[in-house]
Fold this sequence. Notes:
Strand order of the largest sheet: 3-4-5-6-7-10
Structural class: alpha+beta
Number of helices: 1
Largest sheet: 6 strands, antiparallel
Shape: globular
Strand content: 35-45%
Helix content: 10-25%
Radius of gyration: 17 Å
Low-confidence stretches: 13-18, 26-48
Number of domains: 1
Order of helices and strands: HEEEEEEEEEE
Distance between the termini: 37 Å
Mean pLDDT: 82
Amino acid sequence: MRSQPDRTRLKAAALVLCGIAAIAIAIAVAVPALAAGRARPASRTAAAASVPVVITCALQPQVRPSRYVLACGDAGALIIRLSWASWGSSAAFAAGTYSLNSCTPTCMARHFVNFPMLAALWRAVLWPGHAGKRYFSRLTLIFTGNRAYRSQGKLLHLPPTLTFPLSASGGAGP
Length: 174
């Protein structure tokens, strides 16, 4: 039986390897497109039906958004300052910032803490009620810096990665 520190180190190593694999995929997809001059300019609306979109809390399709709200109810979690390396038919990759309401001293105070991260959108599925349109149904965040923050007097840590299901109704959720 492994000790707790051994299991923690093993889990951390596995998560780091997953992060490295995601970064390698992002680079493998982005570099050839940039080198060939096929990089697309950023746009805020979905242009082509064949390219998957993300669905905003206002039920609007977006391609390469500069920000994306995960918590539609109170906008307490979002990703901001997104810089897209690629946006393809099966995945999209960006660098940016995860912004989280720390609820200090209360959630109504709207005190946000920010964490640098890489984002990967994946699992494109049909968007119900929108013939032929697909949306990304998963978002994985890989944190690239400090993950510690204080909330209501407690020191908390985000995990090295977070994966969210994305809703056909916008934001994170089923």
